[in-house]
Amino acid sequence: MDMPEQTVTLPQLVVAARRATPEAGAVAGMCVLCQRPMTDGLRVKSVLSGNFTGWNRFYAGDGMCPMCAYLFSDPVFRRRSWVASEAGFRVLGRSEVRVVLLDPPEPPWAVYICRQGHRQGWLAGLHRVNWSRQRYWVMHEDYDLPVAFDQTRARELVQLIDEAFGFGVARRELARGQPGPGTWRRALETGHEHLMRCVEQAARDNALMWEVLVNVTPVPGRAGDEAGGDAGLRVPDGSLAEGAGEESP
Ligand SMILES: [Zn+2]
Question: How far is the CA of 14 from the centre of ligand 1 (A)?
């Protein structure tokens, strides 16, 4: 991808990753999303559906550039989790999200985690394309801003998360970093007090990164729980089948 570092917008990355040719218009001026000058923009009303709710992400402008408009042209960007990079665009099944978070593709790259598919959570990451595999942003529907990740730390944390799930800590307790009284009692009885303290500490120290990692981790041994369960990733409807896998460009 021949792109100057730090200036690539998320829509540009996605368009390149999908080898797409976005529909162009004739509106000249400034793009309401990426704030770049354009001569081939589209009217905002022609791009967005009537129930769009992300207006607070918009700036003053004249229309939407073809790149930004492209991310509204396909519901997959809102309804699914995905990763985009030079290697291509890939929809992520529930069990694949964590793999990408721990082993990102070569930069430039971006990842989006969908939970309900209700809003375009990626709007918050328009100018947060990743240029590192060590420190990076993770766009997530549940958070108003992309979550900062550190790969080394993330890999350490998932070991702890797996251990805690293995001990039977519930996802909700684990995400909050507050094992409940029942879990604590069981930990004291079985000599897992240290594990509980580590969980509390890790959740405190790593806040959002911890929460995201807990929610994308499958509970071991629970059939069908591919990082889902009560608080995991959800697909809101069946229109886009789970595990669609590779997107063809
Ligand atoms: Zn734009």
Answer: 12
